[in-house]
Amino acid sequence: MNLIAPLKKAKGLGSAKDGVGHWWGQRVSAVALIFLVGWLIYAASTLLPLNYVTAILFLDKPHNAFLMILLICSIFYHGFLGIQVVIEDYIHCPCMKYGLLIGLKLASIFAVVATTFIIVSIYLAR
Amino acid sequence: MKKKNPIKKTTKKRVVAPRKAVKTAPAKATSVKTVVKQKKKKLVTKAAKATPIKAVVEKTKTKTVTKAAKAPIVKSAVKKAKKKAVTKPAKATIIKTSAKTKAMPSPAPKEPLASKKVDGSTFAKTNKPVAPLRERPLSPHLSIYSPQITSVLSILHRGTGVALYIGAFVLAAFIICLGYGEKCFTTWVDFFQMPVGKIFLFGWIFCLYYHLCNGIRHLMWDIGKGFELANVTLSGLIVLFVSLTLTFTTFFITHLEILGQIAQ
Question: Are the C-beta atoms of residues B167 and B204 closer than 8 Å to each other?
């Protein structure tokens, strides 16, 4: 005998029974970001007179290049997970909510791919 | 030391009414006459609103229930109904048999029509639209709680996270511009040299340091350490202090020349 109300099933109410992956991804990327942001601060301090030449010379070194790629990936992964929670908390209008979620996800992927491509191309064209 | 009550407004003492003795249901009238009288009243009120034809039908109903009616048709019909079984009514006696079943004593007196509650069963019967529910009240939250270190740091963690995400797109654009040549990159660098850019940079760097320190605090909680209130407030203060000092140190180091000029 099923006691669940049909309207509950139709509306999709109740627990999602999913989200532990989200929680773990957030924490693991946070730990990674502690180290990567520490490296960024150190790297930015060595890069103080910032102009085009110094930036290119900085990215010519392989360790700088891939740490920068890792940093960008971690920032957008961690950031999107956080923003997803914030949007789901505060925005309830469906078109706005889903529009923002999908749009920001695509924008994050775009930013990650574009930045990775640029860094790799700068390194390969040294 | 007495701790400050975070709730601002003083709530009035709730006066709870003493519990009344549970009333038993009133004795129900089981005799046919009283039931019939109630039915009569109902039918009379109905008849007052109804059309004349209906009123005649209602009146005949009541008459058959109480005594032998004056009209001959009714008398024969009643006799017929008495002779035959109750479950087998003739076509001419439809009204009368329904009156007969109405005359049967019901177990409980029904509620008057005026105070009928709108529920599923009545909706199906009456087919009237249900009245919309009034706006439900919500208990106050932001208006009554004064800001505390725990709540302020928590919302600041969320706010800085959102700001960092927006700033991350600027950082990504900054790196992407490197691939587009010197001109593109130098415009970005010039933007950050301007006061607007410097304010943006200062804000983003504070968000970064604050979110980093508070994030470590969150990870400590995830491990299970530092949940006592004293530890929470202490760690919160440490986070604020460390993030502010780091921000100002960063800006101090990057603007040494400007500070040197001001000193002179």
Answer: yes
